[in-house]
Design goal:
The protein is built from 28 helices and eight strands. The protein is mainly α.
């Protein structure tokens, strides 16, 4: 019952420190003006009473409700979710701004405990809803059109029916949830508090990751080795967090009778296991023609006999290393959005003007980036760690896409606006593609186009190949944990079992790289989240191919899809575009787009080689 308080995290981004202009910060006053805001106390008091009265009015009585009274019950539940979401969004966003601040951590923990205590009486709602006979519920939906709107919500709740425990156990697990949150906080605070010393300067995790994208190879190596040292020094803590979280999940899954560790995620994503497996198999089988082929090209561009892990995200030798200021980044992304449809620009503008983005790298701030939808009567907030790299511009485009999606979906209301993770990446990846194509169109030289194409391919590999490798790591980790406690060496070995396969034969791996799993927040916050990136990339690429083919009315259909939020299944959302994610060939369509970009890079390289040979031959003649 914590509403929509979990942010949309992104694992594919990096960070550092540069003079970037006037970077925006959040104005959280649209939620509450502060910890002591009278509106916050009012909402907490209201929530306590609303939950008590809800239980008094409906517990043990849902089977006897007619359609109108069931609608009233659902609307009251939705309002409770909205207030919970507002409280926890405010507490969470303040915490993510500075996870090392004890006061903010305590405030969030206190809010979570109060919300958990207040909402425990509401556990019956889903349990009793699941006990309704299918024919009875169907009749109620037919009798009341406003109630029928919530059928997708009922479907998702009732998907858990086979795995439902007794009322008493469900209440116990609801109360116990705050303990799991404590392990997540330990992870966040440990990561945010790490200090890395590179070339005589100290950095947080974002600043150190940023060094891995510098031109200076010695600096990249120093950063990679320092990360290995610091992760190694803290590996027991990270192993304890992962062991505990995985064991807790195993216990819950076992009691619920879930067949696999991934089942819960598939149910929450409203996606069939066979669709996810088709995606995974398609990506893994494409490793040789995607990541292996690209990194071999990059090895040649860098003039290396062997690639090291600190070369994976290295800029190309001809790449412009200038810092991209915030104003330029905003202009680049907004021009791409407006060129697609002016409505995109109208929706995106307030993010830059009204304090809806927090962009700067700051001590204690959470790493990475996310877009948090908060609640439907406020607006989303975007967090970045902006450092002026081309990848940071693409991250802005990505998170702004999430924000646009969340604004459009808000009209569905709090129970229907929340989009399954598999569909939540659609607008973000599509926004990246719009920005990339815009930048490619205005590139002045062949060399600039090559750099842009290479950067896009790397981003897509990070989004598809790397995230499926992450997914395989999680699958192996949770399977292994079912056999007993895992040592750090055990987890390291599982990590390395997927890295070589996904990155390919061009790479060597330094001692210490095996601990790199430690800094990925998704493994702790949202187990098995990561396949949603590959799902979203494939889906968005397929959509973009329809758009690029000049389909009539594409923009209107695209906006309708985003407005739907979580009110429709992926089959229904994709049908207007003649796309079907359950068709195995669907994934080949998206993967072929990546392969096609690599084809272009190989053609450019072949042309460059022939030109160089021609110059040498001409020089010999004269």
């Amino acid at each position: 019952m914590t509403g929509r308080s979990i942010p949309v995290w992104d694992a594919t981004v990096s960070g550092g420190i540069s003079p970037l202009g006037d970077l925006p910060e959040w104005d959280l006053s649209d939620l509450y003006t502060g910890e002591d805001a009278p509106e916050l106390k009012r909402d907490l008091d209201w929530l306590k009473e609303a939950c008590r009265s809800f239980a008094a009015d409906y517990e043990g009585k849902m089977a006897d409700l007619d359609a109108d009274r069931l609608l009233g019950c659902v609307l009251r539940n939705e309002r409770i979710n909205q207030v919970v979401g507002r409280i926890m969004s405010f507490a969470g966003l303040r915490y993510y701004q500075m996870t090392t601040d004890g006061g903010r951590a305590k405030f969030m923990s206190d809010c979570q405990e109060k919300v958990t205590d207040f909402t425990t009486p509401l556990v019956f709602f889903k349990l009793e809803l699941n006990r309704l006979d299918d024919d009875h519920l169907h009749g109620l939906l037919q009798a009341q059109a406003d109630l029928a709107r919530y059928k997708p919500v009922f479907n998702r709740i009732r998907a858990m029916k086979p795995y439902q425990l007794s009322d008493e156990l469900e209440r116990f697990l609801h109360d116990l949830g705050v303990i799991g949150d404590a392990w997540e906080r330990l992870f966040d605070e440990t990561i945010a508090g790490l200090v890395f010393s590179v070339a005589g300067e100290t950095h947080n995790i974002e600043g150190t990751l940023n060094l891995l994208t510098e031109q200076d190879r010695d600096l990249r190596e120093a950063a990679a080795r320092e990360m290995a040292r610091v992760f190694g020094a803290n590996i027991k803590t990270f192993a304890r967090v992962h062991n505990t979280q995985a064991k807790e999940k195993e216990i819950l899954d076992r009691w619920r009778g879930m067949p696999t560790p991934q089942t819960g995620r598939h149910l929450s994503n409203d996606v069939e296991p066979e669709v996810v497996e088709a995606l995974r198999c398609a990506v893994v089988s494409s490793y040789p023609r995607l990541s292996h082929r690209y990194y071999e090209l990059k090895r040649g561009w860098l003039g290396l006999d062997r690639m090291q892990v600190w070369d994976r995200n290295a800029p190309l030798p001809m790449e412009d290393t200038r810092v991209i200021g915030w104003d330029e980044a905003e202009k680049t992304v907004m021009s791409a959005y407006i060129a697609f449809d002016p409505r995109m620009g109208e929706i995106a503008t307030p993010f830059f003007r009204k304090g809806w983005i927090d962009a700067a790298v700051k001590p204690g701030k959470s790493p990475g980036a996310f877009a948090h939808p908060t609640v439907t009567d406020v607006h989303p907030y975007v967090m970045l760690n902006y450092l002026g790299k081309p990848r940071d511009v693409m991250t802005l485009a990505h998170e702004l896409g999430h924000g646009v999606h969340q604004v459009l979906a808000a009209k569905q209301g709090d129970l229907l606006a929340s989009t399954p993770l598999t569909l939540a990446e659609t607008a973000s990846v599509f926004g990246e593609m719009l920005t990339f194509r815009r930048m490619l169109d205005i590139a002045d030289t062949q060399e600039q186009r090559k750099v842009l194409l290479a950067g896009k391919v790397e981003d897509m590999i990070n989004t598809v190949v790397r995230q499926i490798a992450f997914y395989d790591f999680e699958c192996k980790l949770h399977d292994a944990r079912r056999g007993g406690e895992l040592t750090p060496d055990d987890i390291n070995a599982i990590w390395m079992s997927v890295q070589g396969e996904s990155l390919g034969p061009a790479f060597d791996f330094i001692e210490g790289y095996e601990t790199s799993w430690a800094c990925i927040p998704h493994f702790v916050h949202s187990p098995f989240y990561v396949y949603a990136y590959a799902f979203g990339d494939g889906l968005a690429n397929a959509l973009y191919s329809v758009y690029a083919d000049g389909a009539d009315g594409f923009e209107d259909r695209y906006f309708d899809m985003l407005r739907a939020g979580g009110s429709k299944h992926h089959k229904e959302l994709l049908a207007p575009f003649d796309l079907d994610a359950s068709d195995p060939k669907f994934w080949d369509k998206g993967l072929s787009m990546i392969s096609g970009l690599i084809d272009q890079l190989e053609a450019m390289e072949a042309w460059s080689v022939s030109q160089r040979r021609g110059v040498v031959a001409w020089a010999r003649v004269i």
